[in-house]
């Protein structure tokens, strides 16, 4: 059954708000390359409004504000969010798939992990109550010392497109559990499910301003968050190039930054290995999430005595991977998230060939499903 693509605004101060400059970004289904909707595009003006809303959430209703609410109170909201996500799993998984191209089975698994993550941090939030004002033993009884855990304040959370809602949850859930007010900036390439998190927050009556969601372009929204004087911390997952810019902006105000920039970990195969198992895990590492994952096995080091046999089996396993519309049952490999990323991958292949590499399998764009309708209804605002 077809589902509509929700037309959302920015989520600020507990409600939907049109971007002040009225900018929007098209949603392109990477499977069909068709425009199936659009998302709001925040700019510096919207960032100012969201930061003010987040800061107000920390000080509103003196004595009952989010920052000093009990862990049990915060846990109640986190569990309510988890329950709503679980209820909406079929729709959210399908929306994630048409937004970023990953196989539906993976999107469904991601939604399960989203639920589990909110529940996990709900438990930790409750545990904070017992740790508040923990006494520290001192040699001199004249003095008393305590450890008091307090939220850092307003946090900016900038996430990539390969795990849109799950990666957002990895940052949002702990931030809210700790009593921070958060501003989530999802990738402009995949923001649809993150915006639906805003609707979930509305439905569970999360206090206004505790979570704000601002899709938008990096130079217009992300940069403004990184340099904003009233953002107390930044957490970013993405490229090293962007991280350098974020650290530079944060350094001007000596602002703490947490960065997750991925890696290029090799898989090393020795001669005494179970070759079939090693091939299976190599394939998994290469192609899970359509190969767009920071832990991808992008380098393979094989003992020369088994190299020929290993590569032969690697090609045979690759030939059996079902490449299709990611909504189809049994799909194991869907499309690259965007034309820009596709061109980047093709450039890698071209450069490798020019340097003498041999392509054992693939290397070209499969024409198996492009142009077909995926059963998702959408409209483009003009």
Automatic annotation (TrEMBL):
<dbReference type="InterPro" id="IPR016163">
    <property type="entry name" value="Ald_DH_C"/>
</dbReference>
<keyword id="KW-0560">Oxidoreductase</keyword>
<keyword id="KW-0915">Sodium</keyword>
<feature type="domain" description="Aldehyde dehydrogenase">
    <location>
        <begin position="23"/>
        <end position="365"/>
    </location>
</feature>
<dbReference type="InterPro" id="IPR016160">
    <property type="entry name" value="Ald_DH_CS_CYS"/>
</dbReference>
<dbReference type="GO" id="GO:0019145">
    <property type="term" value="F:aminobutyraldehyde dehydrogenase (NAD+) activity"/>
</dbReference>
<comment type="similarity">
    <text>Belongs to the aldehyde dehydrogenase family.</text>
</comment>
<dbReference type="Pfam" id="PF00171">
    <property type="entry name" value="Aldedh"/>
</dbReference>
<comment type="pathway">
    <text>Amine and polyamine biosynthesis; betaine biosynthesis via choline pathway; betaine from betaine aldehyde: step 1/1.</text>
</comment>
<dbReference type="InterPro" id="IPR016161">
    <property type="entry name" value="Ald_DH/histidinol_DH"/>
</dbReference>
<dbReference type="InterPro" id="IPR015590">
    <property type="entry name" value="Aldehyde_DH_dom"/>
</dbReference>
<dbReference type="GO" id="GO:0110095">
    <property type="term" value="P:cellular detoxification of aldehyde"/>
</dbReference>
<keyword id="KW-0520">NAD</keyword>
<dbReference type="InterPro" id="IPR016162">
    <property type="entry name" value="Ald_DH_N"/>
</dbReference>
<protein>
    <recommendedName>
        <fullName>aminobutyraldehyde dehydrogenase</fullName>
        <ecNumber>1.2.1.19</ecNumber>
    </recommendedName>
</protein>
């Amino acid at each position: 059954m077809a589902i509509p693509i929700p037309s959302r605004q920015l989520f600020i101060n507990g409600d939907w708000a049109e971007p002040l400059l009225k900018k929007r970004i098209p949603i392109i289904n990477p499977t069909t390359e068709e425009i199936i909707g659009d998302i709001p595009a925040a700019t510096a003006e919207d960032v100012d409004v969201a930061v003010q809303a987040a800061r107000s959430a920390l000080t509103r209703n003196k004595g009952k504000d989010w920052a000093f609410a009990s862990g049990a109170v915060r846990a109640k909201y986190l569990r309510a969010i988890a329950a709503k996500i679980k209820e909406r799993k079929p729709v959210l998984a399908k929306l994630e798939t048409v937004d970023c191209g990953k196989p539906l089975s993976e999107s469904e698994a991601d939604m399960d992990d989203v639920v589990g993550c909110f529940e996990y941090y709900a438990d930790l939030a409750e545990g904070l109550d017992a740790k508040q004002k923990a006494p520290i033993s001192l040699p001199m009884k004249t003095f008393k010392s305590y450890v008091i855990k307090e939220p850092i304040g307003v946090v900016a959370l900038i996430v990539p497109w390969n795990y849109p809602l799950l990666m957002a949850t990895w940052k949002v859930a702990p931030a809210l559990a700790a009593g921070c007010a958060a501003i989530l900036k999802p990738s402009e390439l995949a923001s649809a499910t993150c915006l639906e998190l805003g609707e979930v927050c509305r439905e569970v009556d999360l206090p206004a301003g505790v979570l704000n969601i601002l899709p938008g372009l990096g130079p217009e929204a992300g940069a403004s968050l990184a340099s904003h004087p009233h953002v107390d911390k930044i957490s970013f997952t993405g490229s090293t190039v962007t991280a350098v810019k974020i650290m530079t902006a944060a350094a001007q105000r000596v602002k703490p930054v947490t960065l997750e920039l991925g890696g290029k970990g090799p898989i090393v195969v020795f001669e005494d290995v179970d070759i079939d198992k090693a091939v299976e895990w190599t394939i998994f590492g290469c192609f899970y999430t359509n190969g767009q994952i920071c832990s991808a096995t992008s380098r393979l080091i094989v003992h020369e005595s088994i190299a020929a046999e290993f590569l032969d089996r690697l090609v045979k396993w690759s030939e059996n991977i079902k490449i299709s519309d990611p909504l189809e049952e049994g799909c194991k490999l869907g499309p690259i998230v965007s034309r820009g990323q596709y061109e980047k991958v093709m450039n890698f292949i071209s450069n490798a060939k020019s340097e003498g590499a041999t392509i054992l399998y693939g290397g070209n764009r499969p024409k198996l499903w492009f142009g077909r309708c995926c059963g998702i209804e959408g409209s483009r605002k003009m």
